[in-house]
């Protein structure tokens, strides 16, 4: 049976798959530093570009979830955070792909990468700031930021976080949200009366899940780093795995974690 193609919403028949997705630009954006080309450098570039595309999507979703919480659209916030979790699981699993590269094959092009490093990922830091872990010292320690990137990070430091929006949700539910002690007491109230505060409880759990998945990524990344470069210092100038291990205990939402000890 032959397939028939029908015209569907063609506005002047200009759009194609490749032009819509900007494939010429996208697929011409992998430029190797190694010369002669190291076989695995294409994988290394591709994986980072895929991460950055997902970071962009995550920023879009987390920002919208924050705004939805502030405006009392709790179902929408919950829906978007569920999507955030699925993407974050993909980001953790994606480490498997890069781990098909051996340390020897990485070392073929590693020295060409310095002083560049994942430490300079602006979107990664934006996500941390937007989630709730604002640390202005990272903006100062960034080397080689463009003015536009500096502005983006500055704006993230100034705007409300996902946690700020959740605190608004507590307040709108008539709960005390004026101090950490008040918030902790409110979280206990919510936890002990989940049917009364179903949407608030679900959002708190969604935030905790986001925090846990970010921690999973950091843990997976540092083990990969130890596998690739052992105890060598990083191309970005840090101690390497030592620095990354020091970041493992970070929590976006310590009060949500403390709640578990109080139940
Ligand atoms: C061969 C694979 C990789 C190695 C050996 C590696 C190594 C490192 C090291 C040593 C650091 C510390 C900064 C420095 O001094 O360089 C770092 C930071 C970082 N890397 Fe990687 N990395 C790898 C892959 C990735 C991938 C695929 C991503 C995904 C985007 C990534 C994202 C980051 C981020 C965001 C940081 C900053 C973390 C923080 O400040 O908490 N890395 N990496
Ligand atoms: N920091 C890594 C190199 C590295 O992985 C990297 C280099 C340039 C751009 C992104 C990178 N990915 C994560 O840090 C290293 O020290 O080997």
UniProtKB/TrEMBL annotation:
Coiled coil: none annotated. Pathway: Amino-acid degradation; L-tryptophan degradation via kynurenine pathway; L-kynurenine from L-tryptophan: step 1/2. Pfam families: Trp_dioxygenase. It is an enzyme of class 1 (oxidoreductase). Its cofactor is heme. It catalyses: L-tryptophan + O2 = N-formyl-L-kynurenine. It comes from the Bacteria. Substrate binds at residues 44-48, 110, 235. GO terms for biological process: L-tryptophan catabolic process to acetyl-CoA; L-tryptophan catabolic process to kynurenine. Binds 1 heme group per subunit. Keywords: Dioxygenase, Heme, Iron, Metal-binding, Oxidoreductase, Tryptophan catabolism. GO terms for molecular function: heme binding; L-tryptophan 2,3-dioxygenase activity; metal ion binding. Its EC number is 1.13.11.11. InterPro entries: Trp/Indoleamine_2_3_dOase-like, Trp_2_3_dOase. SUPFAM superfamilies: Indolic compounds 2,3-dioxygenase-like. HAMAP family: T23O. PANTHER family: TRYPTOPHAN 2,3-DIOXYGENASE (PTHR10138). Heme-dependent dioxygenase that catalyzes the oxidative cleavage of the L-tryptophan (L-Trp) pyrrole ring and converts L-tryptophan to N-formyl-L-kynurenine. Catalyzes the oxidative cleavage of the indole moiety. Belongs to the tryptophan 2,3-dioxygenase family. This is Tryptophan 2,3-dioxygenase. It comes from Nocardioides ginsengisegetis.
